[in-house]
Every structure is written in C-alpha cells, then in structure tokens.
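User: My instructor asked us to take a sequence, write out its structure as tokens, and then describe one feature of it. I'm not sure where to start. Here is the sequence I was given:
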Amino acid sequence: MEEEGMKMIEVAAAVIENSGKYFADQRGRGEWKDWWEFPGGKIEPGESPEEALKREIREELDTEISIDRFLMTIDYDYPAFHLRMHCYLCRLSGSGPKLLEAEDSRWLSPSDLLSVRWLPADAKLIESLSESKGGYLQMSV
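Assistant: Let's start with the prediction itself. The structure tokens for your sequence are:
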C-alpha cells in the first residue's frame, strides 16, 4: 500500500464495452509509452470521478460516454507514485472514438485482452474482473 511521503495520483478509468468487446488505447508518450490502458485520466480538485472521466474521454477521444456502473477501485504502487484508479463500466454515447493523444487503439474481446502489454494497474483491474464471480471480462486464456 501507499508508502508515507509517496505522491498519490487519483484517476478515473473507463472500461468501454461495445458488442462484447472492450476499448483499449496505447500510450504514445512518457515513461510508459507503448503500454496499453483503459482510457481516462486524473481527477481535478472539486471534480467527481464520474465528471473527470467524462471530461477526460472528451479530451482524449473526442466522444461522449454514458457511465453504466462503478466496477471497483484499484490501488497500485508504481515506482514514483501511488495510483488510485476508480474504474467504471461505460458505453459510447457519441460518435468515435477519435485518438487525440493515444498512439493506437483496439476493441478487444475478452479472450484477446491479454494479447497486449497492459500498464500494471490496468492488468490488475483485468485480473480482478476476470476472477469476480459472475463478473465481467470472462477470459478464455
């Protein structure tokens, strides 16, 4: 868990489902360039996780989402910071998505989710969801 003095970053992530597939995008810059993630981003002061998620999806993918339900919160210690990621099951309610920041994207079926190199916190989310009873992302690996 979070070490004393370690910077904490709080984010919201969208597990966007469409026709049984899940949207993932590939980071185009930074320390984790080329790793895959569920889209989303930092929660700004005064913003709810849901508000942040809708704003981030507009900024990163130029589309709108509807949030179906909260899935879980993932806590993960990266080397330089502690990440708290609030994850939501979502659907597209606008056109798109268009990649404004990411390098690539894919719609992955549950059996294809492990075909990309996920960021560690996102991998933890997939693992948690695939193990949950009657949960989402039933993977055949």
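For the description part of your assignment, you could build on this observation: The first strand starts at residue 8 and ends at 18. Try explaining in your own words what that tells you about the chain.
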